[in-house]
Amino acid sequence: MTVLVLGGTGEARALAERLQSDGTEFVSSLAGRVRDPRLPVGDVRIGGFGGSDGLRKFLRDNAIGAVVDATHPFAAGITANAAVACVAAGVPLLRLARPGWAGTAGSATWTWVSGHDEAAATAASGHRVFLSTGRQTLDRFVGPLARHETLVRVVEPLDIEVPDQWTVLHARGPYTVDGERKLMREHGIDTLVTKDSGGDHTRGKLDAAADLGVRVIVVHRPATPAGVDTVDSVDAAAAWARNL
Q: What is the dihedral of CA 108, 154, 75, 56, to 10 degrees?
């Protein structure tokens, strides 16, 4: 049996190492949105499947016996497609998603919003905004924050025009608390906008914001499709794959 790991995250790379160590046959799949991705061990395919129908065909054509969706917590499209395709193909599916930040230190003081449009509208009451939501949703902020001094941090170059008063910073984490504190001070940030990615990789900005008294706006995660079992650790996902 071959396990398909839908990846692109640190958890997916760690799971690939565990599956390889366990002797489990697997192949990892990356969406291909990053030009120079960090590749997991083992066989890797890069690119989309063509929706749920394309994924179902891939499962059938490649004798996939199980799927672990270890994509980013906000990769709602592939997560939904995986749920539909696996049901149609009769293939077991597990969602591996790192724990979110709700309930962690300071989270009760943050402003939690349901989506990026609400985040943009809420952030517009600030003066100097730090957008740390990724490049794929930046278009939702351009209008509401068109006249704001805004710092945008992204890994990949932007594919949209942004206002002249915006500053675009290209950087890849992890980010330290000290580094985040220094960055916010240099840009006079009073409002941080992020999403509930979870984990420690980008947690530093939240702790730095608390130190500086910066308002924090956090976008809630999209819901996992109904009926999909979910775990929050690589150990649990590896055990699930071993026990199929």
A: -170
Task: Take residue 192 and report the two structure tokens written for it.
Answer: 């941080």
* Residues 138 and 198 placed together within one structural domain of the fold: yes
The domain containing residue 28 runs over which residues? 2-97+222-242
CATH code, domain carrying 128: 3.40.50.720
Give 69's strand partners: 6, 95
Q: From CA 74, how far away is CA 102, in angstroms rounded?
A: 15
Question: Is the link from the previous residue into 174 a cis peptide, with omega within 30 of 0?
Answer: yes
Are the C-beta atoms of 150 and 127 separated by less than 8 Å? Answer: no
Average pLDDT per 10 consecutive residues for the chain, totaling 244 residues: 95 97 97 83 96 98 98 96 98 97 94 98 98 93 97 91 95 91 98 95 94 98 96 97 92
Contact yes or no for 130/151 (Cβ under 8 A) = yes
